[in-house]
Amino acid sequence: MTFPFGRLLLALATALSLATTPVAAASRIKDVASVQSGRDNQLIGYGLVVGLQGTGDSLRSSPFTEQSLRAMLQNLGISTQGNDSRSKNIAAVLVTANLPPFASPGSRIDVTVGSLGDSTSLRGGTLVMTSLSGADGQIYAVAQGSVVVTGFNAQGDAASITQGITTSGRVPNGAIIERELPSKFKDGFNLVLQLRNPDFSTAVGMAEAINRYATQQFGGRIAEARDSQSVVVDKPKMADLARLMADIENLVIETDVPARVVVNERTGTIVIGQDVRISEVAVSYGTLTVQVTETPTVVQPEPFSRGETAVEPNTTIEAQADGGTVAILNGPNLRSLVAGLNSIGVKPDGIISILQGIKSAGALQAELVLQ
Q1: Which of 1-5, 110-114, 210-214, 301-305 has the weakest average pLDDT?
Q2: Using only C-alpha atoms, what is the Rg of the chain?
């Protein structure tokens, strides 16, 4: 059973829109903002994956892999001078990870590995001890463990098949944190909350909600909206910063976002925000279909004649124009907008073209995001 796209849009509009004024969504502060000091930090390292079944780097094509192999063996006390290695079970990889905020030494994090050379697969390999450094050049973690690859490939003499990516993988809990970040959460004198979707209305509303809470608890205002993304909260003298953050992040506020229409032309997906408005505009949509049919006919010569068999071309061309309906769109809310688009009876790709045309005409009062 199929569900028409127009009915799907209309059902979505009915669920998301109101016939009168729209109501802002209520959310907790922890769901719409994050602490500036609680950001992730990216780590990077260079390492070797061993134990591959003949799918590693060819050492002649990837000289850095051979250099790394020699350096690793020398550190283990094995001399490799004067010997040419032709091993195909080793690959050079780039190791990346995200160091979570407030991570302490001894805790583990996941790492991602990706091949640097001409290795065809990392399946079954083991990452050798690799140091992970931050942007400041300091080592914050050390990674080692078995590489998990989700893709696979198989090949024969005349055919091959590949599914997913076999030259990258993950090492779950493969890195041990050796150094903590220099900053301490409780050493700060204030909190900076950053909105995930910057908006002045949301930032001001968040500051007001925090100030209402602070007036009851501490007898004064402590929050101020710095811009559309940041809200600064000053720490009261007798307050504990961790407990203060725990109380603030559970406050419920009303969020607001700019009107936006998101269009994905590859998949035909259209997402229309609730506050999208369209000025009164007339829209016509029609398609022209041209069908060319070739039906060649074989012509035989007369019996006992010197003629030759020939092919006589026969071409049929048909042109058909569909649609052409003119509709007046005026969208005071999401439901009426979608109902107006459905009244024309077009498919998703047609609606995408119509929205782009309405935006070019200046009648779409929203941001059009093309993906």
Answers
A1: 1-5
A2: 32
Backbone angles phi, psi at 228, to 5 degrees: -75, -10
Helix H segments across 56-115? 63-75
Residue carrying the six token digits 């506050």: 275
The three-state (H, E, C) secondary structure of 157-207, written as one string: CCCEEEECCCCEEEEEEEEEECCCCCCCHHHCCEEEEEECCCCHHHHHHHH
Residue 255 has pLDDT above 60, yes or no: yes
What type of residue is 214? A
| CA proximity to 56, closest of 111, 115, 112, 114 | 115
Let me know if 307 is exposed, middle or buried by CB neighbors in 10 A (0-12, 13-18, 19+): exposed
Cα distances from 49 to residues 109, 127, 128, 142, 293, in angstroms, run: 18, 4, 6, 14, 58
Please report which helix (H) or strand (E) contains residue 320, including its range. Answer: strand 315-331
- The CA-atom distances, in angstroms, between 124 and each of 93, 148, 168 are 14, 8, 12
**Cα–Cα dist 208/254, whole Å:** 11
| Nearest of 305, 339, 301, 279 to residue 6 by alpha carbon | 339
- Which is nearest to 169 in space by CA: 96, 76, 259? 96
- Helices (DSSP H) in the chain: which residue ranges? 5-16, 29-32, 63-75, 200-217, 241-248, 334-344, 348-360
Residue 364 has pLDDT above 60, yes or no: yes
CB 346 within 8 A of CB 285: yes
Cβ–Cβ < 8 Å for 92, 117: yes
For the stretch 313-335, pLDDT in tens is 776 766 555 655 555 555 555 56
pTM of the prediction? 0.63
Q: Is the pLDDT of residue 291 over 80?
A: no
Separation of alpha carbons 225 and 150, rounded Å: 45
Cβ neighbors of 229 (< 8 A, separation 6 or more) are: 194, 195, 198, 203
